[in-house]
Amino acid sequence: MPAKIWKPVRPLTLAKRAALLAADKQALQIVVLDVRKITDFTDFFVICSGAVDVHCKAIADYIENELRRQGYPPTHSEGADTQRWILIDYVDVIVHIFQPDARNYYALERLWGDAKVVKVKGVE
Q1: How many CB atoms within 10 Å of residue 2?
Q2: For 27-46, what is each residue's pLDDT tens digit?
Q3: Could you say which of 4, 24, 37, 47 is the most buried, measured as most Cβ atoms within 10 Å of its Cβ?
């Protein structure tokens, strides 16, 4: 079967899909930040936590596999080896999956505090 080809999709739609996929795997504290007005390297951050390292890895694998299956392969991912902070880069959307202590330490929500929080139906 030929590989699916990247389909055009609005970055907001991709960010919401990633957030919903994280919710499917019971990710904690899922937040989508609209950073378009404060940076030019991406449009949205999806930030969430896993309870422990294997939970973080399961969330990351699920998001990456499901989005790839839908035709959206990541351009880059890193952190799967340590599982404390896993980053999945879709260019216009960057997914960050943290263990709680790493999330508190790096405090991306505070660092990007000027960003608008995007509400996603189905994500608490």
Answers
A1: 4
A2: 999 999 999 999 999 999 99
A3: 47
In a domain, 119, yes or no: no
Inside any domain, residue 74: yes
pTM: 0.92
Cα 6 to chain centroid, rounded = 18
Locate 91 and state its tokens.
């260019």
What is the total count of domains within the chain?
1
Q: From the centroid of its chain, how far is CA 25?
A: 13
How confident is the model over 46-93, as pLDDT tens digits? 999 999 999 999 999 999 999 999 999 999 999 988 889 999 999 999
Please report where in the chains the tokens 């505090």 appear, as a residue.
Answer: 113
First vs last C-alpha separation in the chain: 37
Q: How far apart are CA 53 and CA 41, in angstroms?
A: 28
From CA 63, how far away is CA 57, in angstroms rounded?
10
Residues 6+ apart with CB under 8 A from 16: 32, 118, 120
pLDDT tens digits, one per residue of 3-18: 555 566 899 999 999 9
Please, are residues 63 and 96 in contact by the beta-carbon 8 Å criterion?
A: no
